[in-house]
Design goal:
alpha/beta, D-Maltodextrin-Binding Protein, domain 2, 2 domains, six-stranded mixed beta sheet, five-stranded mixed beta sheet
Length: 289
């Protein structure tokens, strides 16, 4: 009898100490070990929401940006920066998405958005023409376009509205494909004024034309113009005129070719979240100093 018991205990111990049996009878942990490829060997139980700590490789948004300081520009570290860019980075982090930056002119980026080669553009206004190929986020800031002229000529430009400026025979520099509001759109469509609007692909070209007296004024966002003139050391040569265009909301524009309405909804939710947690105001304050 004792022999039988000793034999049974010996077999039990050998079985319990077998590594293969130990692995087979052990429950998986909540965070499984990584496989040799770097991915989790198994999917963890969905008991709690996972922390939003790393971008989802499946969520990639290609963001088109142009040289439009202080909203969008290439920094000294050769990385995209600016108020708009930082806001989008905060939203993307909230969405658990990666951003891929693509720099270009507004005209080129609009073409890429229409074809789906770019997913979103910043600082956009809603127009019926754009709604044919783009979705729009909820507004994320406001803008104010104003007239800038040569400082030496400002005394001879007493006009107080854009239509008065044009009626006096003055030429105005604008950027192609920009939307400056309803008041501007009405004047642009007026045949008697159409030839007085001089288009450029970049705001910098309008500055050069203004200095060369090819145009009498240029319309630009007030923050952008001040930043550009300060950077170029032209604050004494070019100044702000009293003419202002009505301010309006600014939106993010999404390509209907590459982005779904559900993704736009997720973007809006993330934008609301960074407004509530204070990140939005933190970024805004940084650029208003």
């Amino acid at each position: 009898m004792k022999t039988t018991i000793l034999w049974f205990l010996t077999i039990f111990c050998l079985t319990a100490c077998n590594p293969n049996n130990e692995q087979a009878n052990t429950k998986p942990t909540a965070t499984p070990p990584a496989s040799t490829s770097g991915a989790p060997a198994t999917t963890p139980p969905a008991t709690e929401p996972q922390a939003n700590t790393a971008p989802d490789a499946n969520c990639l948004l290609r963001l088109g940006f142009e040289a439009w300081e202080p909203y969008q520009f290439m920094g000294l570290d050769n990385k995209a920066s600016g108020l708009d860019v930082e806001l989008m980075q905060a939203v993307a982090h909230e969405m658990n998405c990666q951003l891929e930056m693509k720099q270009g002119t507004w005209v080129d980026l609009m073409t890429q958005l229409k074809s789906g080669d770019v997913d979103l553009l910043l600082g956009a206004s809603v127009t019926p023409a754009r709604e044919e190929f783009a979705y729009f986020s909820k507004p994320y800031r406001k803008e104010q376009f104003v007239m800038f002229v040569r400082s030496a000529a400002s005394a001879s430009l007493p006009q107080t509205t854009l239509d008065e400026f044009l009626a006096a025979g003055k030429k105005v520099g604008i950027v192609s494909e920009y939307y400056y509001g309803a008041e501007f759109a009405t004047l642009l469509s007026d045949e008697k004024f159409k030839a007085q609007f001089v288009e450029a692909s970049l705001s910098e070209l309008n500055v050069a034309r203004l200095l060369d007296e090819e145009i009498d004024g240029m319309i630009e966002d007030s923050f952008v113009a001040r930043s550009m003139l300060r950077r170029k050391g032209l604050e004494q040569q070019i100044g702000r005129h009293s003419i202002e265009l009505s301010s309006g909301d600014v939106f993010v524009m999404f390509s209907k070719k590459s982005v779904t309405s559900q993704q736009v909804g997720a973007f809006n939710d993330a934008l609301t979240a960074i407004a509530k947690n204070g990140k939005y105001q933190e970024i805004l304050d940084k650029y208003q100093q």
